[in-house]
Amino acid sequence: MLTVWGRADSSATARVMWALGETALSCKRLDWGGRFGGTDDPAYRALSPHGRIPAITRDDGFSLWESNTIIRWLATTCPEAGLWPADEAARWQAQAWMDWSAALGRVIGPVRTAYRRPIPDPAEMTKTIATAAETFAVLDNQLKDKAFVMGDQFSVADLALGVIVHRWFRIPEALQRPDLPAMETWYGRLCARPAYQEHVVARVSVRAQTLGMGD
Ligand SMILES: N[C@@H](CCC(=O)N[C@@H](CS)C(=O)NCC(=O)O)C(=O)O
Fold first, then answer.
1. How high does pLDDT run on average in the chain?
2. In this model, does residue 192 exceed pLDDT 90?
3. Ligand 1 in reach of 48 Cβ (< 6 A)
């Protein structure tokens, strides 16, 4: 049995739970990190050296940390799920998109900080959204003539990027985020996947949204 250590509303945990939902592997998840604590426990640090969530463990002692690495492991452990492109070029391009996902993470953070301030500064919101849009436009361009990041086949690249893009579409519409139509169409395709609905849409940024912050 596989165990995922991480609270369900963490974006990195949601990414792994979504990936698991795309495979036939069963798992249990332990609430860990954030308000649940536990990340400084020495036993947890042995699993996750940086004390971050998620980590996974298997009953035979195997363990892993870093969500994108866990996704790579899952994709190669469950080849029948078809998440790991068979073609060599597509496989390595997918790795590049996975690594590049960190660039999206870096630009969406300041946007969220700006619009969640008790008294938001309109100039800060406009500037951070414009900066983020330049980076998100790179993904929009990649998706222009494709169903998924690597083409027709859903893959690890979509798994690495889909949670961060969910955060983009959580930016309140009133803040006039620029249109990125190919990315929006792709986001619609992700939203049609049950595992994405269950582990990402229903979990990530839900709390702030119910507070009316549109997060
Ligand atoms: N690059 C790491 C990032 C891990 C990370 O920063 N996780 C956040 C949650 S999304 C965390 O552990 N925050 C502290 C906490 O929840 O206690 C990964 O993808 O696994």
1. 94
2. yes
3. no
Ligand 1 centroid–CA 12 distance in Å is: 6
Residue 210 pLDDT > 50, yes or no? no
User: Quick check: 67 and 74 in contact, CB under 8 A?
Assistant: no
In 3-state terms, the chain is what percent helix, strand and coil (to 5)? 60, 10, 35
Has residue 97 been placed in a domain? yes
Is there an atom of ligand 1 within 6 Å of 51 CB? no
Could you tell me the CATH number of the domain that includes residue 65? 3.40.30.10
pLDDT of residue 26: 94
More confident residue, 174 or 135: 135
Query: Cis bond leading into 79, ω under 30°?
Result: no
Residue 215 falls within a domain, yes or no? no
Minimum-distance ligand 1 atom for the alpha carbon of 12: 10
